[in-house]
Specification:
By secondary structure, the protein is mainly α. It is built from eleven helices and two strands. It has one domain. The chain has a two-stranded antiparallel sheet with strand order 1-2. A hairpin with a 4-residue loop joins strand 1 and strand 2. Helix 2 packs across helix 6, helix 8 packs antiparallel against helix 9 and helix 8 packs parallel to helix 10. The protein is globular. The relative contact order is 0.15.
Length: 319
């Protein structure tokens, strides 16, 4: 997970070329360290996915807020953010609604949740902690040091500092999401009477929903309507997953299918995104092919590691 998280969040997404190996040494402690901390805290306190997703949303705001300040920098990365996200400005927050939505989607889902779900497939007991106190402390220290270094590098490069009010609302939102994560409670007892699709159907649905999300800008509607459509898609997906996961037949195959379908969206999305990289087109194409094939191979290996049966909706619950 330490390396899978940045490989998905930065490289497969098409933000960073695979030839830039040095950046992985900085991204891994931040992305991978954040994913590990989120997973370990949730599992150590007996909590599950609602907690991890809320923590992941807090991570998203932390990374793109106080750390690199992308949420407020109108020229972040040399891009005219107002032109990239027209018509969705939120003046009292100092950011753009569509940018905020993308930030939460990219990091909460792909950078954190998908790597956790895939990595847990290889774990004997996914509910147990992986790290001891020393390991957890080491990861936490690495996370703090790396994020502090990246923040300092961004400040030195961009000379941009967000307004105190902007940093304040973001800090309150991060704290609120963390509190909600702890209040999310422990796992709910499974139910035998929940209709549950087969894993391949869940994977296909995850791919369709997440693909539609990234195609929402092509809709012939105002940008705020596209933002609303994105919210509706994820709300629908979240409600369906919450309903299905209450079934006693919900298992490793269904969780992996959900993560794999979501990951496959990044496999195709990396190709158009990589066109903006400052590398030759042939290099960008090779990067996408290597990373895409690697992602598919990883999902195949993970599927082979699943030992529990993938119960269909008409199968009896195990005793």
């Amino acid at each position: 997970m330490f390396f899978l998280s940045p490989l998905v969040g930065e490289y497969l997404f098409g933000n960073t070329p695979i030839t830039d190996v040095v950046s992985l040494l900085l991204f891994a402690p931040m992305y991978g360290g954040g994913a590990l901390l989120i997973r370990e805290i949730a599992r150590r306190t007996g909590r599950g996915w609602p907690t991890m997703i809320l923590f992941a949303a807090a991570y998203a705001l932390l990374e793109e807020g106080p750390i690199d300040m992308m949420l407020w920098n109108p020229h972040y990365g040399g891009i005219d953010i107002a032109a990239a996200y027209p018509g969705t400005s939120i003046p009292f927050l100092g950011t753009w609604g569509e940018l905020l939505q993308d930030t939460l989607a990219v990091h909460a889902i792909w950078s954190i949740s998908v790597p956790i779900a895939i990595t847990e497939t290889f774990s004997g007991d996914r509910t147990q902690p992986w790290l001891g106190r020393k390991g957890l402390t080491t990861v936490a220290v690495m996370f703090v040091l790396t994020t502090s270094l990246l923040c300092a590098m961004q400040l030195a490069e961009t000379k941009f500092v967000a307004a105190p009010a902007e940093l304040a609302w973001c800090a309150v939102a991060i704290a609120g999401l963390i509190v909600l994560g702890f209040l999310a409670g422990r796992r709910i007892a499974p139910r035998p009477n929940v209709d549950l699709p087969r894993p391949w159907m869940i994977g296909t649905g995850a791919f369709a929903v997440t693909t539609l999300y990234w195609l929402r800008d092509s809709l012939p509607v105002p940008r705020w309507a596209a933002v609303g459509a994105g919210c509706a898609l994820f709300a629908m997906g979240a409600m369906l997953c919450a309903h299905w996961s209450r079934s006693c037949r919900w298992g490793a195959a269904h969780r992996l299918a959900l993560a794999a379908g979501t990951l496959c969206t990044y496999v195709w999305l990396g190709f158009p995104n990589a066109r903006t990289l400052q590398v030759p087109p042939a290099t960008a194409l090779a990067d996408n092919i290597i990373l895409g094939v690697g992602a598919i191979v990883l999902m195949i290996i993970a599927a082979r590691r699943i030992r529990q049966p993938a119960y269909g909706k008409d199968s009896p619950c195990p005793s």
